[in-house]
Design brief:
heterodimer, A: mainly alpha, MetI-like fold, 80% helix, globular, B: alpha/beta, Rossmann fold, 6-stranded mixed β-sheet, 9 helices, disordered N terminus
């Protein structure tokens, strides 16, 4: 066996190690078995939950809300970010407002959005969209502003109009940073959606599943829901990363 | 007055009467440029002769690149007039090659699409663009896989792609801003020969900013030596050796003498405070 052969399997080592430690912890009763069920019980609960159980439907509801929130945030922020980024002075004039609300925990906005939109999907989606929008906006605007000066000059020297420079150079120059914004935005949207599902009068979603399982002391179910949320977050990130590698193949070259 | 003075300098340095007979392609009059408190150009007058390769050489920060950036309209002038055979910049076609080819090329386009881009801006239909690039490739006998993205090419190949992008519009004047200074020595030597060949074949008026005196003289018909800023013409030297020049040129007495003369002027200007 040569070493290169083993290379693709390296990432699984951590997973295997975690499961072994987990097993040992349960077997040696380091933690109360009520609080820490065995991996088999947990993955069993995940399997039955995802296969036609409530976990599966809750998973899809959370996916739907996160996707909607990200779509709304992108639809607003990408054009706005390009517009603001195209003029550095314009961006500087609104930078404080963007940074202020970007730094405000979105969870602090729940009560406000509850008053505005009532108890329901619209509140959860709009708070998540709000949080994601600012992250995406900030990244898109910076992507446009940090477009390489030489590249803009090269386009100018070839006789490109201001509009062509925007569409042919600035937009593409900002793409790598836009994807950074999208990945951060979708992660934040998921966080906000899950938190919203836990509290404000929710009846479904992964956040609700975790919360309910905890209330019922159904620990395998709770861990299963946590892992499902983790898988979702990882999957969304991977999704954007795959698109990014495909379309922004030149980034950093 | 400026012209006659120029010509006098020209002939005195060139020791060939023919230099004065070359008509001006670009006329620069009263050019003034300030960066903050520093005056880079103050009522600067200069003529770029038609069909010649002019090297610009001078102390660091004297405004060599600033000069061609202003001529090419990439940075605004504070005062003065630059005309191309009497026409303003927006009525002529020119090519511009940047030092930093990595940042000047578009990495999201294949090399071929990069070269075609200026034609696309001019709304040339695709078949004609392809044909035009193919002719240029054949003409320069370039051996690069133009379906590659720029980042898949070597530095020299990338700079060759950006030179082709500048040439594809048949410019009447070509600007090169230290085009080889980001390349290794071997590649620099190769690229000098490429540029010389291109110049011999197209006879396009060429302005080359260089920080390497040997390169400046080797490639040039005329060497413009600038003083520290505010930049003045320290000397305008002619070097009329026949082309193609080669390694032997570098040890030719004429070359050595002119290079020594330029170095003397340069040293004089550097020591001035």
């Amino acid at each position: 066996m040569n070493k290169e052969h083993l290379e693709p399997w390296l990432p699984t080592l951590g997973v295997v190690a975690l499961v072994i430690v987990w097993y040992l912890a349960v077997w040696m009763r380091v933690v109360d078995p009520v609080l820490l069920p065995s991996p088999i019980d947990t993955f069993g609960a995940m399997w039955t939950g995802m296969k036609g159980g409530k976990l599966g439907s809750d998973f899809l509801v959370t996916v739907e809300r996160t996707v909607y929130a990200t779509l709304i945030a992108s639809a607003v922020s990408i054009p706005l970010g390009i517009f603001l980024g195209a003029s550095e002075r314009l961006y500087r004039s609104v930078e404080f407002v963007i940074d202020f609300f970007r730094s405000t925990p979105a969870s602090a906005m729940f009560p406000l959005f509850l008053v505005l939109f009532g108890v329901g999907d619209r509140t959860k989606i709009s708070v998540a969209a709000f949080g994601a929008a600012l992250v995406i906006l900030f990244n898109v605007a910076y992507g446009v502003m940090n477009a390489r000066k030489t590249r803009l000059l090269a386009a100018k020297a070839m006789g490109a109009s201001r509009f062509r420079i925007l569409t042919d150079v600035m937009l593409l120059e900002s793409l790598p940073q836009t994807f950074v914004g999208l990945r951060n935005g979708v992660s934040l949207a998921l966080v906000i959606v899950v938190v919203a599902e836990m509290f404000i009068g929710s009846t479904d979603g992964l956040g609700n599943r975790v919360f309910e399982a905890q209330q019922l002391f159904a620990m395998p179910d709770m861990y299963a829901a946590i892992f499902a949320a983790g898988a979702l977050g990882y999957g969304l990130n991977l999704f954007f990363l795959t698109i990014e590698r495909r379309f922004v193949h030149w980034a950093g070259r | 007055m400026a012209v006659s003075e120029l010509q006098r300098r020209d002939t005195s340095a060139a020791e060939t009467g023919a230099a004065a007979a070359v008509p001006a392609h670009v006329t620069i009059r009263g050019l003034t440029k300030r960066f903050g408190n520093a005056s880079i150009y103050e009522s600067f007058d200069f003529d770029i002769p038609r069909g010649k390769l002019v090297s610009i050489f001078g102390p660091n920060g004297c405004g060599k690149s600033t000069l061609i950036n202003m001529i090419a309209g990439l940075i605004p002038v504070d005062a003065g007039e630059i005309l191309f055979a009497g026409k303003p910049l927006n009525q002529i076609t020119f090519g511009y090659v940047f030092q930093n080819y990595r940042e000047a090329l578009f990495p999201w386009l294949r090399s071929l699409e990069n070269i075609e881009y200026p034609l696309k801006l001019r709304k040339v239909p695709k078949p004609e663009r392809r044909a035009k690039v193919e002719r240029l490739v054949a003409h320069l006998s370039v051996k690069i896989d133009l379906n590659c993205y720029p980042y898949q090419l070597s530095g020299g190949q990338q700079q060759l792609v950006s030179i082709m992008r500048a040439l594809v519009v048949d410019p009447e004047i070509l600007f090169l801003d230290e085009p080889f200074s980001a390349l290794d020595y071997e590649m620099t030597l190769f690229m000098r020969e490429q540029l010389q060949r291109i110049f011999m074949e197209t006879k396009t008026t060429t302005v080359l900013v260089s920080h390497d005196l040997e390169e400046a003289v080797y490639l040039a018909d005329r060497i413009l030596l600038l003083s520290r800023h505010p930049a003045r013409i320290a000397d305008f030297v002619a070097y009329d050796a026949a082309r193609p020049r080669n390694d032997a040129t570098l040890s030719d007495p004429d070359f050595v003498r002119i290079k020594a003369h330029c170095l003397k002027i340069f040293q004089r200007e550097v020591r001035k405070k």
